[in-house]
Each structure stands twice: as C-alpha cells, then as structure tokens.
Design brief:
The protein has a five-stranded mixed beta barrel. The protein has a two-stranded antiparallel ribbon with strand order 1-7. It has a single domain, classed as Spore Coat Polysaccharide Biosynthesis Protein SpsA, Chain A, CATH 3.90.550.10. The longest helix has 18 residues, at about 130-150. It has about 150 residues and is α+β, with helices and mostly antiparallel strands. It is globular. The protein starts with 5 loop residues before the first strand and ends with a helix. The protein is built from four helices and seven strands, in the order βαββββααββα.
C-alpha cells in the first residue's frame, strides 16, 4: 500500500521493502525519525528489537499521538507491505474519535495478535505532501529536478 501524500525520491523504497519482506517473512513499513514536536502528524511506533542498522522489529504503533503519549519519534511513512488478514482487522475495527478508520490501528491489532511487523528506515529523500505548505514545497523541489533533467 502506498499513500499518495508521502513521496520518496532517490532510492527505490518499495523494492527494498520487498527484499526485507522476503528476508524476514514479515509485514514491512517504511519509516524515518521525525522531530519529537511533530509526532502528532504520523503513526508512531516503538522498536522491539534492532534487526540491523536500518531494520527493526516493531512492538507497537499508535496513530498521531500527542507528544506525551508518543512511544518514540519513529514515524511510519506511507509505504506498507501488509498481510491479507489486515482486511479482517479493518472490518472489526472501530472508528477513531475523528470518525476515521486508521491503518495503524488495524496494524496494532495484528501486532497484539502476534503478527510480525518490521520497520525500514529508507535512504531516499522524503517529500511530505500532506499539508498545503508541504505540497507547495514538494512541488517546487520536483519542478527543479524536472527543469534540471531537461
């Protein structure tokens, strides 16, 4: 699953995630460290165990926590390799207080049911299009790359 407001340039993040999925026989989420003051913008997870320098087993994930309730500053970035049983988890999930279903809540339910989720700190350049400012900044960066390529 790819979320359209998170762009990753440079490294082929999806290909690397497929390799990780095959190696660890697990679900995979792209991730990066974020400023602790901005954790409420992302799903944030806690590392259970480091598997390598950029790959780790996840013990829990929470959607858009407050600074005080954030388990870390490890953010989930909109790239996922998920198991088929995520659909059952979503069916049984209650809407959040904002009336939405969040994929992170379904993932947390699977983690509590002993499903294996691995985080991968990708190497590419992250562009956040999830806010108006982020969208404008990302568009400007991409247009400069495009103009340079011409």
């Amino acid at each position: 699953m790819l979320l359209p407001d998170d762009l990753i340039l440079g490294e082929n993040c999806s290909k690397k995630m497929i390799d990780i999925h095959k190696k660890y026989k697990s679900s995979v989420m792209a991730s990066m460290k974020v400023n602790k003051k901005k954790v409420s913008r992302w799903g944030i997870f806690k590392v259970k165990k480091n598997l390598s320098k950029k790959i780790f087993l996840i013990s829990n994930v929470v959607e858009k926590p407050s600074i005080k309730k954030a388990p870390s500053n490890n953010a989930v970035i909109g790239r996922y390799i998920l198991p088929k049983k995520i659909f059952n988890s979503l069916k049984n999930q209650k809407k959040s207080k904002d009336g939405e279903l969040h994929i992170t809540d379904a993932i947390q339910a699977l983690i509590l049911d002993n499903s294996k989720f691995v985080g991968h700190n990708f190497a590419g350049k992250y562009l956040d299009c999830g806010t108006l400012k982020g969208y404008i900044d990302s568009s400007n960066k991409i247009s400069k790359l495009w103009n340079f390529a011409l």
